[in-house]
Amino acid sequence: MRIASWNVNGIRAVHKKGLFVPFVEKYQPDILCLQETKAQQDQSEVDLPEYEEYWNSAVKKGYSGTAIFAQKSLGKPLSVANGFPPEIAKKFGLKADAYGDPQTEGRVIALEFKDFYVVTVYTPNAKDDLSRIPLRHKQWDPAFLAYIKNLEERGKSVIFCGDLNVAHTPDDLARPKENEGLKGFTAEEREGMQKIINAGFVDTFRIFTKGNGHYTWWSHFANARARNVGWRIDYIFVSAKLAKKVKSSKILPEILGSDHCPISIEI
């Protein structure tokens, strides 16, 4: 089984460039998780008849949003859930801040299959002035970890992927010293990631590849992508008991169309 994840930074934009369908046709993921779709489902002109589409779009038009495309050969999911359950949102005080309500921003989808859950997530950005760090550190990150642990406790492995908007270690960005304490590389954001790992979830890319130079997002400025001055902020994690079944985990920087590139695993 091949699972891919891509922050497309607007599905309509990448499709109009003629780059979305060719990617899907070349890699043929069984499950494709998307972030930052920036569209309602009825606004998308993508036509992939062999896939069933599941969308969680933001209430605010042209903003955020996630989707999962699953090959029909997998069969219908046993369940589909958008966002966090109300009890988890309530427990961690997840509510609107100055930017809006993260529960209405279309940030999480979970599909349940016979042997596993697959979850896609688009984690809130801390913002340049770090004004969304309180939401991120005290509410979102703990709520997301509680959610994936809750799914795991139901007796199935969890695969979760997406744009987590954080570089975990200095190896995950080209210029760690210059970015220490800035958005995406604050102590609070990195702590949230470490807690996921401490809970037993495995960063699949690091099973196979160590060191720096492997990035999934590049700024539009200063020719950053061509110079590979980037960040690894897109991840595919699996439950510990599934880690030994992961055969490969790759970053696909040759795929253009977004400021992020896709990532994929084979199980």
UniProtKB/TrEMBL annotation:
Q: Does the keyword Transferase apply?
A: no
Q: Where is this site: Transition state stabilizer?
A: N165
User: Transcription regulation as a keyword?
Assistant: no
**Annotated catalytic residues:** Y122, D163 (proton donor/acceptor), H260 (proton acceptor)
Please state every residue range assigned to the domain named Endonuclease/exonuclease/phosphatase. Answer: 4-260
Q: Which InterPro entries match?
A: AP_endonuc_1 (IPR004808), AP_endonuclease_F1_BS (IPR020847), Endo/exonu/phosph_ase_sf (IPR036691), Endo/exonuclease/phosphatase (IPR005135)
GO MF annotation list:
DNA binding; DNA-(apurinic or apyrimidinic site) endonuclease activity; double-stranded DNA 3'-5' DNA exonuclease activity; metal ion binding; phosphoric diester hydrolase activity
- What does the entry comment about cofactor binding? Probably binds two magnesium or manganese ions per subunit.
Q: Which GO terms describe its biological process?
A: base-excision repair
Question: Matching Gene3D superfamilies, A to Z?
Answer: Endonuclease/exonuclease/phosphatase
| Protein name per the record | Exodeoxyribonuclease III
The entry's keywords:
Hydrolase, Magnesium, Manganese, Metal-binding
Its family remark reads: Belongs to the DNA repair enzymes AP/ExoA family.
What Pfam families would the database entry show?
Exo_endo_phos
Sites annotated Interaction with DNA substrate: H260
Which chain positions carry the site (Important for catalytic activity)? D234
Q: Identify the residues that bind Mg(2+).
A: N7, E36, D163, N165, D259, H260
SUPFAM superfamilies associated with the record: DNase I-like
Cofactor(s) recorded for this entry are:
Mg(2+); Mn(2+)
